[in-house]
Amino acid sequence: MNHYQIQDLESYFKAYRASVDHPEVFWESIAKENFLWKKPWNNVLSWDFEKPEIRWFDGAELNITENCIDRHLSTKSEQTAILFEPNNPAEPAQHITYAQLSEEVNKMANVLKSQGVNKGDRVCIYLPMIPELAYTVLACARIGAIHSVVFAGFSASALSSRINDCDAKIVVTADGSFRGAKTIDLKAIVDKALKESPQVETVLVAERIHNGTPLKEGRDHYLKPLTDEASSHCEAESMQAEDPLFILYTSGSTGKPKGMVHSCGGYMVYTAYTFKNIFQYQQGDVYWCTADIGWITGHSYILYGPLANGATTLMFEGVPSYPDFGRFWQIVEKHKVNQFYTAPTAIRALAKESTDHVNASDLSSLKVLGSVGEPINEEAWHWYNEQVGKKKSPIVDTWWQTETGGILISPIPYVTPTTPTYATLPFLGVQPALMDADSNEISGNSVEGSLCIKFPWPSIARTIWGDHKRYKETYFTAFPGCYFTGDGASRNEVGYYRITGRVDDVIIVSGHNLGTAPIEDAINEHDEVAESAIVGVPHSIKGNALFGYVILKNQEDNTDLDFLQKDINRLITEKIGPIAKLDIVVFVPGLPKTRSGKIMRRILRKIATKDVSNLGDTSTLLNPEIVAQIRTIVGV
Ligand code: PRX
Questions:
Q1: Is residue 157 domain-resident?
Q2: Residue ending a domain, choose from 434, 459, 489
Q3: Would you say 546 and 507 are in contact if contact means Cβ atoms under 8 Å apart?
Q4: Of 62, 233, 267, 52, which Cα lies nearest the Cα of 139?
Q5: 148 lines ligand 1 (CB under 6 A)
Q6: Closest by alpha carbon to 313, among 92, 135, 140, 84?
Q7: Does 374 sit in the ligand 1 pocket, CB within 6 Å?
Q8: Would residue 238 count as lying in a domain?
Q9: Gap from CA of 146 to ligand 1 centroid (Å)
Q10: Which of 399, 419, 497 to mutate to test the pocket of ligand 1 (most atoms within 8 A of CB)?
Q11: Is the confidence at residue 636, as pLDDT, over 60?
């Protein structure tokens, strides 16, 4: 990145201008200078947002694991690549060097091969935050298999629908996981999921909790005996830049999760380059992102981005509250963490506790603080800045999405002056636009609209697995010629962007992206439920909480509503996972609908947030009388 050194705001603007005036020249120089390619590209970029089709570095061949591992071995074989901090602070941390990472990934790659996994096959990974998760992800990349990591907090039903969607024949899991004081029997969840996914032929089981989980003859195998036997050399498969690297599912506004497909070449270039600049990672630093690898943040900024830079990346198995609310800060002190990247929901939860927890640890190693996943409110921003950063570590409020692969809008630390709640300026090469309701771009500053991106960046998801039509409809139809993010945003007087939240039926709860439709589908499966609608309401820690309106098939005076609420949450936990549980449930006789039958969520949202001053004209509804009835039930 010699051409584009960003030392101050002026050099940022200069580099930004160059990056958008001549994107191909810009990205070609980044790709050439920083990575190992087996074969160069014929063409830097071809794109068409109408089709849509986007190709970066076409014709090039590479293997991302050679960039993340092999090329560091000559200079950094004894440097820690992954610093594993277990759930239990009494258990020693593991310093996994680049040499050890290479050995483990190669062995795992050979195990996958021996189980019949070939290039292009999908491998479902349902593992807790233990080193085997990193090894398996990278092993897939080594042999060109497409990994689909499913967050290990998802239920059996959510797991099996993700396995089936991409037709995975193999699942890599663990006997169980430790999360705080709890132990979770993961393998039992897999066994249940596989009743609905009979095509799965092989299950590999890492032992973490040693619970002696039963193995199904012929299908299930413990991992360790296989890796012990495997060779630690596995040739890295030559991948086309546009070959899929992985699938990662994200919620949409309709029922089925969307399997976002990311490419090998563009994804590598973009995650590595953003990591280096946005965290200002210097050799020797210890970087820690607290996300789970089950989410995009973990893929891009625990594994691929940091490892492509030869960084030391910390991987934490546990939770911020165990054994006490000082755990994050104890880890920062213990490992002298320099860059710390977390979510606003965690910040808010920790800010609620005594500052003694923060002050008990030496946080002087910190140089950069990151935030991701949802808008960070002003109070949380200040707490983070003052209590954690002691006002000397810039906060990078990074805006991006599963679909974008990497960070698109963020300050550059020590360069971009920060403003609380603003993600500030686009990263190099990123061209945001705010759109009005008629799909016209809104120019100038001090404006607000729907956030779109006008030009492709290297790590944009290329399709939805098995459903290119849905990809087009979801992202490229509302604002023709642009990628639509689903978020609303404002641009202030100096051109800084502030993300105001989703403008579609996706609700972000504790940083998790939840579609209303799958939750409603789960509730509607309850025997006693006729229909339901979910809206988000502000919550002091989770950002949003879920508020459910439920119509029962029969509601008698003696119906046990408390029991039903619990039973609905039990069903949601079973179908999706505990993250999607409702905080508030009201039982109503009907839902406000338009004449075409569409639920008027805007009205339901206003009632749920007790903001009924401007409900708009409800007289054109199919059932206008229902609004007053619901208001009475909610008490507004
Ligand atoms: O609404 C935005 C919010 O999270 C959504 C993307 O969620 P997901 O695909 O799960 O990826 C999360 C991690 C990258 C976005 O559409 N979001 C993410 N970061 C921010 C944010 N909202 C405001 N500020 C952010 N920094």
A1: yes
A2: 489
A3: yes
A4: 233
A5: no
A6: 84
A7: yes
A8: no
A9: 24
A10: 399
A11: yes
Per-residue pLDDT at 3 exceeds 90: no
Q: Whose CA is nearest to atom 10 of ligand 1?
A: 513
Q: Residue 513 C-alpha to ligand 1 middle, in angstroms?
A: 8
- For residue 181, the one-letter residue type is A
At 11, is the pLDDT very low, low, confident or very high (cuts 50, 70, 90)?
A: very high
Measured in angstroms, how far is the CA atom of residue 384 from the centroid of ligand 1? 19
**401 CA from centroid of ligand 1 (Å):** 5
Does 465 lie in the same domain as 569? Answer: no
Cα gap 438→90, rounded to integer Å: 59
Give residues with Cβ within 8 angstroms of 596, minimum separation 6: none
22 lies in the same domain as 97: yes
Residue at 503 is within a domain: no
Atom 4, ligand 1: which residue's CA is nearest? Answer: 373
Provide the residue range defining the domain that includes 551: 510-634
pTM over the 0.85 mark:
yes
- d(Cα 385, Cα 258) in Å, to the nearest integer? 35
CATH number at residue 146: 3.40.50.12780
CA 262 to centroid of ligand 1, rounded, Å = 17
Determine which residue's CA is closest to atom 7 belonging to ligand 1. 401
User: Using CA positions, which residue lies closest to atom 22 of ligand 1?
Assistant: 374
- The mean per-residue pLDDT over the stretch 293-307 comes to 98
DSSP label of 238:
P
Residue 1 reports pLDDT greater than 50: no
Whose alpha carbon is nearest atom 24 of ligand 1?
Answer: 375
Residues 613 and 537 both lie in one domain = yes
Cβ within 8 Å of residue 556, ≥6 positions away: none
Q: In this predicted model, what pLDDT tens digit does every residue of 91-132 receive, in sequence order?
A: 999 999 999 999 999 999 999 999 999 999 999 999 999 999
CA of 533 to the centre of ligand 1 (A): 23
- Of the candidates 458, 489, 520, which is a domain's last residue? 489
- The whole-number pLDDT of residue 555 equals 82
pLDDT of 596 > 90? The answer is no
Q: pLDDT tens, 538-567?
A: 999 999 999 999 999 988 888 899 999 999
Q: Which two tokens stand for residue 338?
A: 């320099």
Provide the H-helix boundaries in 279-366: 296-298, 305-308, 327-335, 344-351, 356-359
- CB of 292 shorter than 6 A to ligand 1: no
| 292 falls within a domain | yes
- Position 350, amino acid: L
* Ligand 1 close to Cβ of residue 489 (< 6 A): no
Q: Which pLDDT tens digit goes with each residue over 360-374?
A: 999 999 999 999 999
Q: Note the pLDDT tens digit of each residue in 479-503.
A: 999 999 999 999 999 999 999 988 8
